[in-house]
Specification:
Largest sheet: 4 strands, antiparallel
Number of strands: 7
Radius of gyration: 20 Å
Order of helices and strands: HHHHHHEEEEEEEHHHHHH
Number of helices: 12
Distance between the termini: 33 Å
Strand content: 5-15%
């Protein structure tokens, strides 16, 4: 937490330039690497910090106060390392993980502690993050698996050491989607497609795969794990984003307060009221995320915990967007100029409700649960 707080001002100094140019914040990740934060989720026995989900949430929010795009890339890395580190051995064995999986898992986590950076390649053009609609395919070979397909919105593409790839068995009658940790290199091609409204420095390019990988890259050591994990323990697919967007929202409050003070707008009651409502809304969202994180650490996969997971993403995404919009109005037209920190934060914050799971999907999940149905199964369209 202290390392993230210390780094945030440095990230903030660089954020505007990376946003304007749409460039990957390499210096930020050099700082994260040297501070040991890439090993945040790796256990201490492997050289990491052994952080909890609540620790992650606190770190991500602090990083996002400095640079939302950097925090979002970090979130993807932590989603990989966190899911690996926090799935109990006994649960993995119960699901059918072979013993050689644990050695491969430990090596991936130890590599993160040494500074390796991981990305997530799940979304696809046309189907988004609907895992059951994944078209990227894998087929068994004598040496492991052949993976072919294309991914979109891959944050950090071209700069990570390996990608967490979702792919499906095209010969299975029911959707069988598996996770693979695919090393960057031959057979993995990055296409420069990213030019977005917000989070412009995430480098979320398209990635094309035509690659053969060894059996050790199959996460969990078993096929068909993806949809099971998404339903049972959705925190790394849903709630991890929430901490990033509360950090962005908090940064927007701070930037607006600075501009209101500098321009003498604080004498206007309407401006003060917008700032006050924004501060209260962000504090409330932070408390929801903190509650969700605490429950994830105490009882991961519990039905009530999962409700908090979906609440956290909904509240954080909507709050960031609404607060940033209101504060931009409070600060006035000058804040809309390119290069103004509040203009960038407004665009970054707007992405929170759009990232999976979107606010509408989160609200629908909660609504189905509230009427007593199964929000993962009792829907016309598959949730994942």
């Amino acid at each position: 937490m202290r390392a993230a707080r210390d780094l945030a001002p440095r990230l903030a100094e660089r954020a505007g330039a990376h946003d304007a140019a749409g460039t990957f914040p390499a210096e930020d990740f050099a700082d994260l690497r040297s501070s040991g934060l890439l090993g945040l989720m790796a256990p201490a026995r492997l050289g990491g910090s052994g952080a909890s989900f609540a620790d992650y949430a606190a770190v991500a929010a602090e990083l996002a106060r400095g640079a939302g795009a950097t925090a979002l890339i970090f979130n993807m890395h932590a989603s990989v390392t966190g899911a690996l580190a926090q799935t109990p051995d006994e649960l993995a064995r119960e699901w059918g993980a072979p013993e050689d999986f644990f050695a491969a898992r430990d090596e991936a986590l130890a590599a993160a502690a040494r500074g390796a950076l991981y990305g997530v390649a799940m979304s696809e053009r046309g189907t988004g993050s609907r895992l059951s609609r994944t078209s990227t395919a894998y087929r068994r070979t004598d040496g492991g698996y052949r993976i072919t397909g294309s991914k979109a919105f891959v944050s950090g593409a071209g700069h990570v050491d390996a990608y967490l790839v979702t792919a499906r068995d095209p010969d299975a009658e029911e959707p069988r989607v598996s996770y693979f940790l695919v090393p960057a290199g031959d057979g993995v091609r990055v296409e420069q497609t990213w030019d977005s409204l917000g989070m412009r420095a995430t480098g979320s390019q398209d990635v094309h795969l035509d690659v053969e990988v060894g059996p050790e890259t199959l996460l969990g050591g078993m096929e068909g794990l993806t949809l099971l994990l998404a339903q049972m323990m959705p925190q790394w697919l849903v709630a991890s984003y929430a901490a990033v967007y509360t950090g962005v929202a908090r940064s927007a409050v701070e930037a607006a307060a600075d501009q209101i003070r500098e321009r003498g707008l604080g004498r206007l009651p309407a401006v003060r009221a917008r700032l006050g409502r924004a501060e209260a809304a962000v504090t409330a969202a932070e408390l929801v995320v903190a509650e969700a994180a605490a429950r994830i650490d105490e009882a991961p996969g519990d039905p009530d915990t999962n409700r908090w997971v979906w609440r956290a993403k909904l509240v954080a995404g909507d709050t960031a967007s609404q607060v940033a919009s209101s504060l931009l109005e409070a600060a006035g037209a000058s804040a809309t100029r390119r290069g103004n920190p509040l203009e960038r934060l407004y665009r970054d914050a707007r992405c929170g409700a759009l990232q999976p799971a979107t606010s509408d999907v989160c609200a629908d999940w909660l609504g189905v649960a509230e009427i007593g149905d199964d929000p993962d199964e009792d829907t016309e369209v598959a949730r994942w």
